[in-house]
Amino acid sequence: MKTLKLTLKALQAVMLVALGVFAASCTPDEKDETISLDGALVLNNGAWGKNNASISVYDLKNKTVTEGAFKAANGFDLGDLGQDILAVGQELYIAVNGSQTIFVTDNKLVSKKAIVAEVAKIKLSPRYLCSGGGKVYVTYYEGYLGEIDPETYAVRVTKVGPNPEGVAYLDGKIYTANSGGLIPNVYNNTVSVVDAATFKETSTITVATNPALLFVSAGKLYLNSFGNYGSEGPKVQCIDPATGSVTDLKYNSPSSIAVQGNNLYVLCGGYDEQWNPLPGTVYKYDCSKGQDLGNFVKDDTVMPNAYSISATKKHVWVGCSDYKNNGDVFVFGASDGKKVDKFDCKGINPLKVIE
Length: 355
Description:
Layout: E1 3-7, E2 34-44, E3 54-59, E4 64-66, H1 69-74, E5 82-88, E6 91-96, E7 101-105, E8 111-115, E9 118-119, E10 122-123, E11 126-132, E12 135-140, E13 144-148, E14 155-159, E15 164-170, E16 173-178, E17 190-195, E18 200-206, E19 211-217, E20 220-225, E21 235-240, E22 245-249, E23 254-260, E24 263-268, E25 281-286, E26 291-295, E27 306-311, E28 315-320, E29 326-333, E30 339-348, E31 350-354
Antiparallel strand pairs: 1-2, 2-3, 2-31, 3-4, 5-6, 6-7, 7-8, 9-10, 11-12, 12-13, 13-14, 15-16, 16-17, 17-18, 19-20, 20-21, 21-22, 23-24, 24-25, 25-26, 27-28, 28-29, 29-30
């Protein structure tokens, strides 16, 4: 992120549950007292029902953290369960799942619009965000894909598979990862293909059970799935949209993925026989060559309770969480895999980082 200006009133933590953090260049704030922060935004998911999702600002130069940036900018909390955050031009879109709201803010995190979508008077719960073709797309857990017009913030929705999670745009089509996560003992295993022009589902692709995050790199789709937490384990898969073919990538216990350019980063961890969390390991995959590049982290850094991974042009970020206390974020150089820093994110469950 470029420079972020925030007023100095009540820099206290709390924003919502989303999936990432984004930043953009800002114009100077004319108020009497301001803070100029040059760094990254950390989206802290928060704890279910606690209304304590938050955004923290990490200053890369001074290695300091300012908590509660959304609340400081707006005077109110982000809400319950921040799920994802997306930068589109000079605006940020923040999906708050539990609060069933998408906040659109300026590049200083000041709220411009709170988007609430409904179907048959039932409020929809936003999950993940992406942009493409001049629109912003969002999955709604009730089984819908939403399209947001960034000029008017108007929303239209179309039906996709059950409980969709990740969403991606590629060549005039939108793809949603349908988890079926709310169907007792019966997870889904499809990716919906939606034509952007007609905004209708045209087909589905069969993938591993309980699909989650979905990204585009080098003309293909990359997906991680959680399995059924029993007989079927988690997987990372590559989808060729031209043929609909699906290929498994050979990673053990993958828990999350992130993409930057032609690089896919796979976070692996899992649990031992007593369900104690194992330290996280990050692998790097060249999507343009279809080649595994091995362990990304080049030193002996141990990442306990590894929970999430984000990738930006200069850094890779691993969030660690015990779901109860403030989480830690490990920062690695994207070019060399060497540890840059580890910091307290000043929030619960660091889910996504952008700079």
